[in-house]
Amino acid sequence: MERCVLNYFFVAILSMSTLCSSAAQAAVVEHTFNVGNLTVERLCKKRVITAVNGELPGPTIRAHDGDTIVVHLVNQSPYNITVHCWWIDWCRHGIFQVMSGWADGPGYITQCPIAAGNNYTYRFNVVGQEGTLWWHAHISFLRATVYGALIIKPRHGTKAYPFPEPYKEVPIILGEWWDANVVDVENEALAAGGVPNISDAFTINGRPGYLYPCSQQNTYKLELEQGKLYLFRLINAALSHQFFIRAAGHSFTVVAVDASYTTQHSAQVLLLAPGQTVDALLLADAVPAGDYYLAARPFISTPPSPASLIFNNSTTTALLHYSTTTSSPPPAPPTMPSLPAFNDIPTAYGFYTNLTGLIGPGRPSVPLEVDENLFVTFGLGLVPCGPGRPMCLAASMNNISFQLPEKKSLLEARFGGGSGGVYTEDFPVRPAVEFDFTNVKERLDPSVLVVKKGTKVKRVRYNATVEVILQNTAVLGTESHPIHLHGFNFFVLAQGIGNFNASAAAPTYNLLNPLFHFHFIFFSFNVFKPIAALNLIPPMQVRNTVAIPAGGWAVIRFIANNPGMWLMHCHLDIHLSLGMAMAFEVDDGPSPSTSLPPPPPDLPRC
Questions:
Q1: Which single residue of 136, 215, 240, 422 could bond 413 by disulfide (Cβ 3.0 to 4.6 Å)?
Q2: What's the rounded Cα separation, in Å, for the pair 294 and 12?
Q3: How many degrees, rounded to 5, is the angle at CA 382 between CA 481 and CA 240?
C-alpha cells in the first residue's frame, strides 16, 4: 500500500522561491510491510520463506529527494525482525537533516528486534540523496528473502539526472537462494563454530534463471524496444557473493554507485559486492533485435586452494527480449554473454578503481582537514567457545569481535545519557597487535589468531571529519570484504594491495577527483611478489559500501554530522554474525536541530 500526503514541514530555511516550490510538492510516501510466510517453488521444490507482502523481492519504495518515507512494519512471521533502509542524510548547503537514527534498523544497534506478532513504524526524511538504495532485514539470514529496492529520484521541480533521460528504469536485484530454511542454515553454522553451507542458486529479481532445473519458464524477462535507453538500477542483495554481470550484445554506462553520481564510465562487465548498488545505462541497439541473456556469476577473491574452490559457481540469467522479434521465422536461441573467470582479479579491481565521483556545483567535496584517524584491521580469527570445543571461528575489527547487546540497543543506552553498562567507548583506534597483516604465515601466531569479544564503540564529536584506513588481513584466509557504514556516505580516497604504507599511499589520495594515474600493484597471495602492475584511475568515489581487496586496503573519509549510533560492518552476513563490526557513537550537535530526538513511542523493546 502506498499513499502520498502533502508535507509542508521543512527543517531548513531556504530562499523563499525554493522553499515554496519544493514544500508544495514534497510528499509522505507511505507503505505497509506485512512480513510473513510465503510458499514458493524454486529448483523443482516448494519451500516456505519469510517475505514482505507475499512478494520476492519485496515492494519497491519510490520517493523523491525531500520526501518523507513511512513504513509500517507488521511482523506476522515466526521470527523477530528489523528492517534497515539504506538512506543517507547529507548536510549540505546549510540544510540540516532530520535526525532519524531510530529508523536505521540494525537489531540491537538502533532498536531491539520487532517480536513476532508486533509492529513498528519506520519514519525518516530523504535529504540530499538521489539514486538506487535498498531495504532489507537486518537480523539473521532473513535478508536472503526479505529485501527490496528503494529508489530516490531528484527533488520535485528540479533539473533531472546528470545524464540522458532514460526511456525506462528497471530494478535488477541479485540474490542468493538456499534450498533450506535460511535461519537454520545460519544457526547450524554458528552452533558448529564454522561457516554456513553454500547456496544452491543465484537469482535475478527472485528467479534463478534458465540454467537451473525447473526454472526455464520462470526466468525474469525484460522487454526492450529498439533504440530506447534503459536505466538498470542494480542491487547486490546476496548474502555472501560478489557478482560479475554482463548483457550479451550490449554495453553499460555506469552513472552512479550507492546512490551517488559518478563520471560516466563505459563497461562491458559490472561488478557488485554485497550491499552495493550500481546505476547503469543500457542502449537497446543490439543487431539483430532478438533475445539476449543478462547473466551474473560470482567473483571469488580468495586465492586458489582446495578449500577456496568450494563455492557456488553457477550462473543466474534474465532474458532481454526485443519487442520487434517475430515468431516467423523462429527466432535464434538467446545469446549468452562471455563472463570473466570466477577469479579474474584484474577485471574486478579494474572496475572498482576506474569509478570516480561526479564533481561540480552541489556535489559533495572531500574534507581536507581530518579530526579523527583510525587504522582498522579486520579478518577472521578464533575465540574460546566453552567445554568440549575450546575454540570457535570468529571475526573481528582491531582484534575485537563485536558482541551485540541483549537487554537494550546501543542507541537507547546512548540516549539515556551514557553507556548504561551496555557498551564501552574504548574501541581501539589501532590494532592491539601490529603484524605483517597480509602475510599468510602470521595466522600461526596466537596473539594474532585469538581475538577478544566486546561491545566497544568509537566516540566522535559532532561534525568531526573521520578518516579510516581499512586494512584486510590474511589470518585464516584472504578474501575481499565489503565494508558498509551506516548513517553516512564516505569518500573512498585510495585503494591498494598489500600492507598500507602511509608514505607511499598519501600521494595517491584523490581529494579533488583529477583523472591522474598511479600504479596499482597486485601480489601473489602465496609468495607475495608482484605479478602485474596496472595503470588505473584512483578512486574518489562517494559510497556507503566499499569492497576492500583481498590482502589489501582502502582509505575512507566522512563527516560525522549525524548524531547517533552507527554500525560499520562486513556485509558478508556470516561475518557480521561472527563479529566483524564496530560502531561509531556520534555526539549531538550544539542545537536541537543537530541533536537526536527522543525515540518514537512504539520503539521495540528487548
A1: 422
A2: 44
A3: 30
CB-based contacts of 185, cutoff 8 Å, min separation 6: 141, 178, 196, 197
Averaged pLDDT for residues 183-194: 86
Q: Higher-confidence residue: 529 or 603?
A: 603
pLDDT tens digit sequence for 528-574 = 333 233 333 345 889 999 999 999 999 999 999 999 999 999 999 98
Sheet holding 242-247, edge to edge: 221-224, 316-322, 291-299, 242-247, 270-272
pLDDT tens-digit series, residues 252-305: 999 999 999 999 999 999 999 999 999 999 999 999 999 999 999 999 987 655
**Closest by Cα among 474, 244, 241 to 352:** 244
Q: Which three cell numbers stand for residue 604?
A: 521495540
Strand partners, 413: none
Q: Pairing state of beta strands 229-236 and 372-384?
A: unpaired
Structural contact between residues 197 and 164, judged by C-beta atoms closer than 8 angstroms: no
Q: Which residues contact 40 (CB under 8 A, 6 or more apart)?
A: 46, 47, 49, 51, 56
State mean pLDDT over 135-164. 90
Sign of CA dihedral 449, 450, 453, 458: negative
- Cα dist from 477 to 206, 381, 425, 469, 492, whole Å: 31, 10, 30, 20, 25
Over its C-alpha atoms, the chain yields an Rg (Å, rounded) of 23
Peptide bond before 367: cis, by omega within 30 degrees of 0? no
Closest residue by Cα to residue 232 from 302, 282, 159: 282
φ, ψ (nearest 5 deg) of residue 56: -140, 110
Nearest-angstrom CA–CA distance, 549 and 472: 7
Q: CA–CA separation, 104 vs 487, rounded Å? A: 8
DSSP 209-260: -TTSTT-GGG--EEEE-TT-EEEEEEEE--SS-EEEEEETT--EEEEEETTE
Reported residue count of the chain is 606
State which amino acid sits at residue 67. Answer: D
- For residue 519, count other CB atoms closer than 10 A to its CB: 11
Q: Give the mean pLDDT of 391-413.
A: 92
